[in-house]
Amino acid sequence: MLLSATSVWGERRLGSGGYTQRKLSGLVYGGFSFTSHQSEGAGNVTGQTGLAFGFGVDYKIMNQISLGIDMLYTSKGYQLKSENSVIQYDLSYLEFPIWVKWNLAREFQLRAGPYLAGMMVAATRQVSGTATPLKSDFANDFGVSFGSWIGFWANPQLAVGVDLRYDMGLANIQNVAEPSSAIRSRTFISMLNFIFGLK
């Protein structure tokens, strides 16, 4: 589960009984994800869990729609299995998801948008307990993200909810000139959110 903190969209106005909308909000988050992989001719590829953390901002553009951008550190490792060996690849990316968010209710939100991995942070290969760096063997990732948030407001300044995100990678993450196979990432992130009002 991921822990997340972000500014509140709604703020109670004393004496009015209603809420005013904030134009700008910020968030920070961190926790775990699970990455599987789509393999085309690469052999038996299995995914694994990893870390994810970062921060972002949202800007409200109309009544129910806002735009958001995150900067996310995430690991997308996998294992390549054959009859005689198991090779583990540990990949770390710095990603930039860009969201269009539909605030259907104060307790429910849908969102979608592209993500870009502007920088590969690290890549290592482990065979029989020996790790070898090989960052140049892998390419930057990019794809499309889908997500939702559902929760409840404990008070006008605090909300608790569950945030679900699915990243569908479109790039072949192997850096080869004429690839005979392709490996694309598929990442699921489940977040427990705590949302705080910021002045």
- CA radius of gyration: 19 Å
Helical segment count: 0
Strand elements, count:
13
Helix content: under 10%
CATH topology descriptor: Porin
Beta content: over 45%
Can you walk me through this structure?
By secondary structure, the chain is an all-beta fold. It has one domain (2-196): Beta Barrel (Porin). The protein is built from no helices and 13 strands. It has strands at 2-6, 10-12, 19-21, 24-40, 44-60, 65-75, 78-81, 86-105, 108-127, 130-133, 142-155, 158-169, 182-196. Strands 1, 4, 5, 6, 7, 8, 9, 10, 11, 12 and 13 form an 11-stranded mixed β-sheet that branches. A two-stranded antiparallel sheet has the order 2-3. A hairpin with a 2-residue loop joins strand 11 and strand 12 (158-169). The two termini are 27 Å apart.
Q: How would you briefly describe this protein structure?
A:
The chain has 199 residues and is an all-beta fold. Helices cover 0% and strands 73% of the residues.
